[in-house]
Design a protein that fits this description.
The protein is an all-alpha fold. The chain is about 60% helix and about 0% strand.
Length: about 575
């Protein structure tokens, strides 16, 4: 009988034991990148994919990129040097973007009414998450943009990058600088505190002195200008800084001026690309370098450093906010924003129509005219002083004058706008300045006519090269005799004599010696315009010397026309 419990016989060909399951491997970064980019969605957004590290693809990366396509595909090695451009053009645009982003975010929490504007400023400080950071970033970036745009203009000038074929784009840049200043000025009012309302009051008062169009300007009566219909009334929306002014400045600051500025920035960048980069070759046979990655990486590093800097500043330093605006309480001193303090300082020496309208207008027009007046073909695309001594000296002298006036306005003007040295305490009362006097009409006309005729004629009359050392010694002897007469017969203080001497020497050098040496070969039209602008700048020095040194208020005064010089 069979045993049902007996084991079954072993199979002659037993099945192999199952192999251990293979361990799944993690995808590499290359695998993930290939999976993410090897599809229709990615290729529809990014052209010329997959990326290959070849000269052709590096060029296509520039041409096909929204932000980078205004770059050329290759640049000269000099353009990659940080000490050539300092990245100032790109940083200016970066700050414009920062201001746009932070400005839009701030608009969500701001209402442009006199009842609510200051309250919203306080809410940004205490109630809105990161509100104070946004306001700080917007405020400091605005000051930074003003500074960097000015430095960018100086860099472009010193490297001769405004010369043919870039004359028009230089003019666009000058207009952008003007709009940058105006953009910052219109934003100054929006916090609606004491600093804002009185700074704007000082600034807009200059508009009332506009010739013909301002009620306080020369010849205003010819057009029937009054406080209720002149250009200042149009700007303020009334006769004083109030609700209408706040609304108008808000619209200009947030809509009108940014739109115009953005359009001109696009034009400016496009012309930079079409006119070609100005960097000159160091070696005639040198090869150009790919913009990607050489230039682009440097730009990104500069942008990252700029963002980090303003992030730190915005965390460490709060934007100023004073008491609620009160038209009945005037701060003493009442000052314009720092970038307009040069104009405010000129009000000490000139009437508002000259300090606030005529001189700024001549500065803007003169800057725009520079490429058409400068016929020197040398010095394009590199820093040089020897090849462009007159242009560099006059331009930098004007820049230095402007910042010295700003320094005086910030640190040397105290209560009642009296002169205080930076180390003096404003709580110490100062006596009012001495009485001033003005030239008789006949003497004023003779002085202005003589200055204009001699200033235009003398550099052309003297032929040959003047020995500057002998000329300066001659001026020194002349001034010593004059100083002795001023001291003996006028009893004038020594510091006043020194001021007159220094300003007079500067006028002699930049108003006569430089033009006599470098402008003689210009054609009549260019010489006339160049020397006229130069004499106008020297006239500022002369008027400062007359006021500070001799207490002369006006050289020419015609009260019937409201015309004082």
């Amino acid at each position: 009988m069979a045993d049902n419990n007996a084991p079954a016989p072993a199979s002659p060909n037993p099945a192999p034991a199952p192999a251990a399951a293979a361990k799944p491997t993690l995808p590499t970064v290359d695998d993930l990148m290939k999976e993410a980019t090897n599809n229709q969605l990615w290729k529809s957004m990014f052209r010329n994919w997959p990326w290959q590290d070849t000269a052709r693809h590096r060029a296509r990366h520039i041409v096909d990129n929204l932000w980078l396509h205004l770059h050329p595909t290759k640049v000269r090695p000099r353009a990659l040097e940080i000490t050539f451009t300092w990245g100032l053009g790109g940083l200016s645009f970066l700050l414009y973007l920062i201001l746009t982003v932070t400005g839009v975010l701030l608009m969500f929490y701001y209402r442009p009414t006199v009842e609510l504007a200051y309250q919203d400023m306080k809410d940004l400080e205490f109630a809105v998450s990161f509100g104070i950071f946004l306001r700080n970033c917007h405020r400091w970036a605005a000051h930074g943009m003003v500074t960097i745009v000015i430095l960018h203009m100086i860099r472009v000038f010193l490297t001769g990058s405004y010369k043919k074929p870039r004359e028009f784009n230089w003019g666009v840049g000058v207009i952008l600088l003007t709009l940058t200043l105006f953009l910052s000025f219109t934003g100054y009012l929006l916090p609606w505190d004491q600093l804002a309302i009185w700074a704007v009051t000082v600034g807009t008062n200059m508009a009332g002195a506009t010739p013909l169009l301002g009620n306080e300007g020369p010849f205003a009566n010819l057009l029937g200008m009054t406080i209720s219909n002149d250009v200042r009334f149009v700007l303020l929306g009334g006769t004083t800084v109030g609700a209408n002014t706040l609304l108008r400045f808000y619209v200009m600051h947030c809509v009108l001026v940014p739109l115009v500025t953005g359009a001109l920035i696009m034009l400016h960048f496009w012309r930079v690309r079409k006119d070609s980069f100005s960097a000159a070759p160091r070696d005639p046979n040198e090869d150009k370098l790919d913009v990607w990655p050489h230039l682009v990486v440097r730009e990104y590093l500069m942008a990252a450093a700029c963002i980090a800097f303003f992030f730190f500043v915005s965390v460490a330093f709060d934007a100023p906010l004073e008491e609620l605006a009160n038209p009945n309480v005037t701060p003493n001193p009442s000052k314009a924003p720092w970038y307009f303090l040069g104009l405010q300082e000129l009000l000490v020496y000139f009437d508002p129509w000259i300090a606030g309208v005529l001189l700024p207008g001549l500065i803007i027009k003169g800057l725009c005219a520079i490429p058409y007046l400068d016929t020197n073909p040398k010095g394009v695309g590199y820093y040089t002083w020897k090849e462009r001594p007159f242009a560099n000296a006059i331009f930098m002298f004007g820049i230095a004058m402007w910042f010295i006036l700003i320094f005086i306005g910030v640190y040397c003007r105290g209560p009642n706008y009296f002169w205080y040295w930076p180390w003096e305490n404003w709580l110490v009362h100062k006596p009012p300045p001495g009485a001033t006097w003005s030239f008789p009409v006949w003497a004023g006309l003779l002085s202005l006519g003589g200055y204009g005729v001699l200033g235009m004629a003398l550099p052309k009359v003297f032929s040959g090269d003047i020995d500057w050392k002998k000329a300066n010694w001659g001026y020194g002897v002349f001034f010593l005799v004059l100083a002795a007469a001023m001291k003996l017969y006028g009893g004038i203080e020594a510091w006043r004599i020194v001021v007159v001497g220094i300003l007079g020497w500067m006028t002699f050098v930049f108003g006569f010696l430089y033009p006599q040496k470098h402008l003689k070969e210009l054609d009549f039209t260019r010489y006339s315009v160049t020397q006229s602008l130069n004499l106008t700048m020297m006239a500022v020095l002369i008027k400062m010397g007359l006021r500070l040194g001799l207490d002369i208020k006006y050289v020419l005064t015609l009260p019937q026309f409201n015309l004082n010089v």
